[in-house]
């Protein structure tokens, strides 16, 4: 439907899925220092790995970050939506920052992942990839040492726990309106239709001219589900049976009518998913405001 929120599937996939590829992220574990054979001279200090970004002191190494960017570019190309390196870099930064913020919040709320549970996750990934050799190859391609991989996987699990906590707080019912529209692509025509409506013409008859298939019926919609805020504000400020003025958007000129209103209607699966994604996105945006984020 034209007015329904167009999901940002890339962002939802990166933030909601938190699957295997999302493990390629932060690591604060430094390379191990090999002790010398004698007590003197002192072993040299290992050079810290360069970090691509840090969030509240937690970092992701440059080699891991570059692997994530390459994965993102390849994935988008496979989907037929190629992106340049600048776009990919921005998307990966957003994903990694969100993951780290989620993981940090999970720890702050007392979530812990013990060694046995972490090993179970590793065993599951090993099986999914086809064996230990395949997992080792994947880790090598993403610049992981064993400790770094375990740390990243642990953070992914923490992130998923906090994500689920946030989205589960979204109510399964909400105030909704049953919305119908007349959508036209010429303002003069839209004004002409409005004059006819104000003169007593039947909304259904005019809606049929604009959309012979659905008569402009957009179904039940909650707040936060519509693409355009002006459309949403108008829809929820109308009384049942009333029609709006002409509302201009990027896609045309709309006249709305409210067919019914329900203060606590169960959300459709698509609407619930949309509102959950919105809640998660808003949570991340709020956390970013107070986070210390450093990018190279």
Report on this model:
The protein has helices at residues 9-17, 62-78, 85-108, 115-129, 132-141, 146-168, 187-198, 203-210, 229-237, 269-290, and strands at residues 51-55, 58-61, 173-184, 217-222, 247-249, 252-266, 293-295. A hairpin with a 2-residue loop joins strand 1 and strand 2 (58-61). The strands form two sheets. The protein has a four-stranded antiparallel β-sheet with strand order 4-3-6-5. It has a three-stranded antiparallel β-sheet with strand order 2-1-7. Mean pLDDT is 85; it is low at 1-40. The protein folds into two domains: 9-169 and 277-295, Porin chaperone SurA, peptide-binding domain (Triger factor/SurA peptide-binding fold, Orthogonal Bundle), CATH 1.10.4030; 174-265, Roll (Chitinase A, domain 3). The protein has 296 residues and is α+β, with helices and mostly antiparallel strands. The protein has ten helices and seven strands. It is 50% helix and 16% strand. Helix 2 packs across helix 3 (85-108) and helix 6 (146-168) packs across helix 10.
């Amino acid at each position: 439907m034209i007015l329904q929120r167009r999901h940002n599937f890339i962002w939802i996939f990166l933030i909601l899925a938190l699957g295997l590829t999302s493990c390629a992220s932060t690591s604060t574990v430094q390379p191990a220092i090999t002790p010398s054979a004698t007590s003197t001279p002192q072993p040299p200090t290992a050079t810290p790995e360069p970090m691509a970004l840090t969030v509240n002191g937690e970092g992701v190494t440059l080699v891991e970050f570059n692997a994530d960017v390459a994965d993102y570019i390849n994935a988008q190309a496979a989907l037929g939506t190629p992106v340049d390196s600048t776009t990919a870099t921005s998307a990966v930064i957003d994903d990694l920052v969100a993951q780290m913020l989620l993981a940090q919040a999970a720890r702050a709320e007392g979530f812990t992942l013990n060694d046995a549970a972490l090993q179970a996750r590793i065993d599951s990934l090993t099986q999914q990839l086809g064996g230990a050799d395949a997992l080792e190859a994947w880790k090598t391609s993403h610049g992981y040492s064993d400790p770094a991989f375990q740390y990243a996987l642990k953070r992914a699990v923490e992130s998923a726990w906090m994500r689920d906590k946030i989205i589960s707080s979204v109510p399964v019912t909400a105030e909704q309106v049953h919305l119908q529209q007349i959508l036209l692509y010429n303002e003069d025509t839209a004004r002409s239709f409005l004059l006819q409506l104000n003169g007593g013409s039947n909304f259904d008859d005019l809606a049929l001219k604009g959309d012979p298939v659905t008569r402009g019926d957009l179904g039940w919609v909650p707040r936060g589900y519509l693409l355009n805020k002006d459309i949403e504000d108008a829809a929820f400020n109308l009384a049942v049976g009333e029609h709006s003025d002409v509302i201009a958007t990027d896609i045309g000129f709309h006249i709305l009518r409210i067919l019914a209103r329900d203060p606590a209607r169960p959300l459709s699966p698509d609407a619930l998913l949309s509102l959950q994604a919105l809640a998660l996105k808003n949570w991340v945006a709020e956390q970013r405001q107070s986070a210390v984020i450093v990018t190279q």
